Amino acid sequence: MSAHAWERATEIPLLIAGFLFLFSYSWQVLADPSPGVYAAWELVAIVVWVFFGVDYLVRLVLARRRVRWFFRHILDFVVLVLPPLRPLRLVRLLVLLRVLRRNAPRLIRNRILAFASISTVLLVYIASLAVLEAERDAGAITTFGDALWWSLVTVTTVGYGDYTPVTFIGRLIAVGLMLGGVVLVGIIVGTLGSWIIQSVSDDNEEATEETAEAVIALRDEVRQLRAALEDQGIDTEKRL
Known about the structure:
By secondary structure, the protein is mainly alpha-helical.
């Protein structure tokens, strides 16, 4: 089996596994489940992580130039070997972005906008869960609403300062969110700006084409009128 065939075959399973991982983590953080339910969801997260690891190893084995492939996919490796800090495990959901990127619309502008928009939503939601778990016991951010508000303020680099992470993990999440937010928001704004410029350019081109067509039509009418006058024996050169 080729690497491309493997990637196509595992797209849907990886997508399902990624969302299952996100759902299990969300349930553990937001629902305050019993120890038995918590352990069950933790087992689901471990199984999904193992599946991600198998996918990584298979793609590495199937790669033609393994060393080059390894360095080109170094982020995938980092995702698998993250330290066992629960909030940082959510970085493994970058697998979702890889799958979504391959299935984005074919047009470049649509692909960029769709990918950046979905990435921003995932980034904000994931950061909200992670910072809530990291900061809840410290008393800085105690509800998901507070965490979501903090994530939105941080990702847009507004920074009101009404909620501030006080733990090391919380601040680490804040750094990642700020860096990711600057990139993703910049991509979205740049893409929208490009779309507006292209729309204006298209309108100008359309107006120019309509003017050119009107001039051509008028020229044809003048030629027809001149031909009709010449058929009647009128010298159009003297008349004009």
